[in-house]
User: Fold this.
Amino acid sequence: MDSAMPTWFKKALILIVAAIVVGSISAQLRSSRRAVGYEPARTADGKPDLSGVWQALNTANFDIQSHPARPALALIQAPPRTGVAGQVRATPTDLPAPAVRALGAVGAVPAGEGVVDGDEIPYQPWAAAKKKENFEHWLERDPEIKCFMPGVPRATYMPYPFQILQGTDKILIAYEFAGTTRTIHMDKVGDSPSPTWMGWSRGRWDGDTLVVDVTDFNDQTWFDRAGNFHSDALHIVERYTAVSPYHLMYEVTVEDPKVFTRPWTMRMPLYRRAEKDKRILEYKCVEFVEEAMYGHLGVVDPATGHANK
Amino acid sequence: MRNRSVAVVLTLAAAAGIAAFALASAARNSTAAAASDSPGYTAARTAWGDPDFQGVWRYEAVIALERPARFAGREFLTDAEIAQIEQTEKDQEARRLAGVEGEAVGRQSVAASPIRGNEYNSFWQDHGRPRKVYKQTSLITDPRDGLIPYTPDAQKADGRAAARYGVGPYESYLDPDTGERCLTDGVTGMMWQGPNGGHNQIVQSPGYVTILHEEYRDRRIIPVDGRPHGKIRQWFGDSVGHWEGDTLVVDTTNFVDKTHYEWASIWTRPSETLHLVERFRRTDADTLEYTITVEDPMTFVKPWTAVIPISRIPDGTQIYEYACHEGNYAMPNLLSGARADAAKKPTGR
Assistant:
């Protein structure tokens, strides 16, 4: 049978099959750029309309990796006593640190699934040690406590809404926390003049996905309240894709050769805040943290009305 | 009124036979015209049909908010005064470009700085290029005397604020003014605050006009979609906008009472009774005429109005991140300085 097939026919058949395979692969690639085949609403200039108020609904701001519930963000270890003479606890027990103890269940940490692909963050060995130390010194170190700008991508999954505003050649992301706004330059712009908290964002459309390349970070922001951190070599690539009228899929690749051994990725859905006339409200938290930051420094502590010793 | 005066100036110049050169220089000088429509200017539109104000804007005029005493009784400068102010601006720029220390474009001298005896601060006042000279003697057009119609109590508070600005005492973090605390200088002063972080980027999207103010990264997301005011009081109040032809009208209420804080300028502080109406209109490609009417029975005996020309900054200008609170080394230094002072004179307070 095979030998009966003329060579010219075999060649033609191979070409046809090859053409079909190549065609279907490229069609698949194109449709994968469309993500889920959802046809998004369009702006006046034909781009996907991502505008609206959005919010993440997960525990990533507590810890971007999978984590069990725990009693507090700041912990101490109970001394190994049981009250029974001669008996020592097999496993040490974590208790809330004195500074946060009065908050009770309000100050506890809910369990949550990780948002990191593979649930693993590829720290270099020194950096893994520093992350652990950050975790243990959360109360003194987390920039969120001081109302500092949260950085990217943490701003996305903090428990506050943000609004995407699609201008003609700039897209704004207006975060409620600390009144921070990112300008995504869709036009050609020069370089950032200095390192920044929120990075320098350049955007482009890849099919129906908004891709934002973010550079020029300082080393002051964290990824979460678990002490995950980066250096000033951080490079972030974000992908925002509308997957329904009420959801964006958010994918972010983290690259930092000073801290990690390879790039890694987080992904999560973002949900539309569907309340009528939903607005981003003011959250000027600077005035909420001044007592903690400066109360002990002045001639008088406003919290007590007495002179500082 | 302004239109008429400009026309009179131009007519007189022509009648005096000073020919083309004088006319050209009058046209250059009389930027008062910028506050009225340029003939033939058609407002640019966004892709969805709204008047387009997008870009970076900054207040670059020499005009004081309140009419200086030396101009009392008149609304416009003389040509000689305009020429003299323009010369001052040019001289300042020349000295700045020559690298004269402490020299900044935008004020009379280091001695005129609101911060006493500190040349370091001159760069905060630097406009970078000569400011624009207009004919009007004050931004305030109503009342006609060009002065803020303070209530007696507010007048006293203003005097007190002026006396302690940059001086103290600073017993705690509550004593510096809201700007030094990296909170805000207030919504009313945001559009024409001047050189230090005074750039405003306007970004429009269907149903919204957003103004990003560089300093304190202040931000206003103004819905222009017919929604009513909300119920939440905020530092920046609750703004809703609508279009009247080519004019954006923004009505703001629901301010929170922040009168117990120290403010560099009392008129910028919000109270619960503050009602602000702003009108934005592009009079030519490079000028936004910004008119505010401020009403607050707690601070003013009657509403007052200011007409403010805002200049477009050339394309390609960006506004940058303003990490004021994140880098507020001044606050701990100020407080530790005050404690050191207090320790030196233990009976002082």
